[in-house]
Amino acid sequence: MKKLFETYYPLLPIIALCGFYLYQASGFVLHDFANYYFGGYFLSEGHFTSDLYFPDIFNEKISALGYTSVFTSFAPNTPFLALFFYPFHILDPYTAKIIFNLISSVLFIYSLRRIFQHYSIQPIYLVLVPFLFFIPIKNNLLFGQLYFLLFFLLAEGWLAYKKKQLFRMSLFWGIAILLKIFPALLILFLLFRKKFKAALYLIGVCAGLTLLSVAISGFEIWFFFLKDVFPKASNGEIATAFVDNYQSFYMFTKRLLLFDPVENPNPLWNSPLFFKIVWITFKLSLLYIGFYCSQNRNKLFAFSFWIMASILFSPYGSTYTFILLLFPFIFLARERGTSSTKIVLLLLLFAICNAPLSLFLTKAFPFSYIRLAFVVLFFVLFLFPERKTIYRKGILLLPIIIIPIGFVGSYSQPTENSKALLPKDSPILIYEYTVSDNELRYFYRDENGTHTTVIPLPETEIAKADIQNNQIFYNGKQQTLGKDHKQKAIVLNNKTILYLSDYGRGIGFYTLRKTTVH
Asked: What is the reported pTM?
């Protein structure tokens, strides 16, 4: 009994925390779990098509099933995710969420214990996990998120990699990639370490899982995902155009360098070209650092780098994502002894995971991005032991040379040929509008169902415009060029075109935009 207690007592705090929030989640709203469950449900019903990536259609179908308080979006998830959650369709969504949370928690704790045992890490660090990662653990369970499962897949794949079990590694990491895409950076990790056979295994498993999904879900939805959904998700376009909650480097740079008359009227420097230069340079710098970090003899250090890089690469972020920072935490815990740098890193980790966003978002830009600053500082200090290798390879020359060149002459005057009609705090999903009797009436959807708002208009002459191949035509002329999805275009007084558009927003998250007839 004593030996059993000594073996498992470090797990008691995290078991207790997970148990408490498993119970709390049972009475919580479906939240993010609705994305996964209803994707699998509609696949089981044979109604899984690209239309479901448009949130109005997705929510309307869910509402028709009797779940009127659900407001969700299947984007930016892959079609494979619906296949993965297919078995849960036999349960109602609330029971399915409880079962999924329970399975995820067991797998999460199982892998956490295994990886701590593998590295013979002192038990005190396992006791610290529920304190350092309190909010990520809480939100994963309350929201029914995937990141407990993702940690399990990455950790078990890592242990299999260490044991040279290539198919097992590829299966775990391949499922992780098909669920969330960003773990695909692990292919670079393998290539940079010259593990070409392992990389081929992983690529092959990913291809096989994709073909399985295509065989069941159909080619059309995968084509739509790759052509329309993934590009928008890669630009951080999940809901609205500027989302400080994401606390990502991408959103920070966007807020800094891109003008928007409604959502970002006062950028420091308006330049779409310079924005692209900064973002591409940032990604290339991370890849360059990753190449040399991958040569490090300490495999866990290199693996932890790529996990952190995937978080920095992502244009959107969330508290539950930070559960993946367990990997650099495990590396730090494995290092014997203490140091001031290690203590600072643990304090930063606590702040990243647990500091309330409300403390930052109420501040003026750029102080609203303090959590991002914590993440970047953690990343830099984590790499500090490798500074000589990184500096010697001239990594700093890339941004030092490219960014000033891109900055010179890159300023663009703000243009407003096409702009949002409604103010910043307008609904995120408008699905219909009418203009009649000197008023504009628009209809929108949120977690409380459907609503309508009326805006008075002066006396207005109305004409219809056509939409062909997602472009607006009027008087025989093409009026728009953007790749955004458009619906219902009308012309007011032969001067202004009014239409629904998801420009700069998540796919199908329409708002009212207007442009001048030309």
From this structure: 0.93
